[in-house]
Amino acid sequence: MPTILFFLNTSFLLGLLGLSFHRTHLMSILICIEAMMLIPYLMMTTLMFTTSTPTVAMLPILLLALSACEASTGLALLVATTRTHGTDHMKTLNLLK
């Protein structure tokens, strides 16, 4: 079990590093955020299976629903910014111009 938690923590940190280093396109930012949202889902699911408590059973489903809402909102923002600015580069999305 500790190896699974180590791999999940490492993959969450890789998503965080990808978010901090690859900020050129909005799509890559959204993919890193989605990966960071899927890792707590996997952690809660493994916690549910290891503890076998029915009170924790609803948390992964709730987190997955929130993650789907976040993904749809992010894709809607991506489409809107691509239509208005013509690209998804983060350098062109400066609203203070």
Q: Which key terms come to mind for this protein?
A:
elongated, Helix Hairpins, NADH_UbQ_OxRdtase_chain4L/K, mainly alpha, 3 helices, 97 residues
Question: How would you sum up this structure, described in words?
Answer:
It comes from Lacerta viridis viridis. The protein has 97 residues and is mostly helical. The chain has a single domain (2-92), classed as Helix Hairpins (Orthogonal Bundle). The protein has helices at residues 2-21, 26-51, 58-85. Helix 1 (2-21) runs antiparallel to helix 2 and helix 2 runs antiparallel to helix 3 (58-85). The model has no long low-confidence stretch (mean pLDDT 85).
- What shape does the CA trace take? elongated
The count of β-strands is 0
CATH class: Mainly Alpha
Distance between the termini: 51 Å
**Helix fraction?**
over 70%
Rounded average pLDDT: 85
Order of helices and strands: HHH
CATH structural architecture: Orthogonal Bundle
The residue ranges in which pLDDT falls below 50 over 5 or more consecutive positions are none
Question: Class by helix and strand content?
Answer: mainly alpha
Tell me the fraction of residues in β-strands, as a range.
under 5%
In the residues, how many domains can be counted? 1
